[in-house]
Amino acid sequence: MKNYLMKKQYGLGLLAILVLLVSPMSLLVSHIDLLGDVSFEEGLFYTLLTDSAGSQGFLITLLVLSLLVWRKRPSTQNLLANGVQLGVILLIGFAAKTGLKIMTESPRPYTELLSHQLLIPQPEHFYKLNSTQKAEVIDGISTQVSQWRTRHWQGEKDYSFPSGHTIFVAICIAFFGGLFVQSREYGLAAALMLWGLGVAYSRLWLGMHRPIDLVGSIVFVSAVYLLVPQFHTLSEKILLKLPILTHK
């Protein structure tokens, strides 16, 4: 058990730091005005950040991080084991996200604004509407809210908890960040952490999540990362059956 935890220490340590850095963001939420003016530069910046961890760009992010790890030329066994581990964690994370949203039924912050503007009776009412009606309600506030925000509202009309973007960020920080720290590439680990914090804040800025959504997502990933093994034994067995793949 001790050896198992030792192998996980870097990833878990980075997730602990991430929670400590994300938690104070609750103090910043009150300063975010969803009705405020947004410059082109500001809107583009937060959109690129959030898209890098969303359906539009998460594969590119995974590719870039994978290439950074691959440039170190890891052994075939480590490459296979790490790939299986990452795949399992991502699968569990994304599948559980959908289930948790249905279970918690937590309205997104922007639905509170829609309620305050009398477009819906209360935030929960938004989720009783069909897709067309939801889109029409969001359109009803488009003259007051920047398109940089409403375009994301139109794209994500599901529940708030947990944050799928933050789940992806936490997985990347635990997995790739742990590998960077293990190989003493502290600069890359720090850059990855800054990116993760930027994505987390972008979710607040867009009105998509609350701080508790972010913290809960990180805690959830911490549990998944702790429980999912590293599959070195499995990768060794696979390589023995596939002699065409050789070890370094």
How would you sum up this structure, described in words?
It is a single chain. The chain has helices spanning 2-22, 40-51, 58-70, 76-104, 109-116, 131-139, 147-155, 164-182, 186-205, 211-227, 232-241. It is mainly α and 248 residues long. The chain is built from 11 helices and no strands. The model has no long low-confidence stretch (mean pLDDT 91). The chain has a domain at 40-106 and 159-241.
Briefly, what is this?
The protein has 248 residues and is mainly α. It has helices spanning 2-22, 40-51, 58-70, 76-104, 109-116, 131-139, 147-155, 164-182, 186-205, 211-227, 232-241. The protein is elongated.
List keywords for this structure.
248 residues, single chain, 67% helix, mainly alpha, 0% strand, 11 helices
Largest sheet: none
Average pLDDT value? 91
- State the secondary-structure class: mainly alpha
Report, as a whole number of angstroms, the end-to-end distance.
28 Å
Shape call: elongated
Proportion in helices = 55-70%
Low-confidence stretches: none
Kindly state the number of beta strands: 0
Strand fraction band?
Answer: under 5%
SSE string, helices as H and strands as E: HHHHHHHHHHH
Write down the Rg: 20 Å
So how many helices? Answer: 11
Organism: Vibrio variabilis
Protein name: undecaprenyl-diphosphate phosphatase
Keywords: Membrane, Transmembrane, Transmembrane helix
Pfam families: PAP2
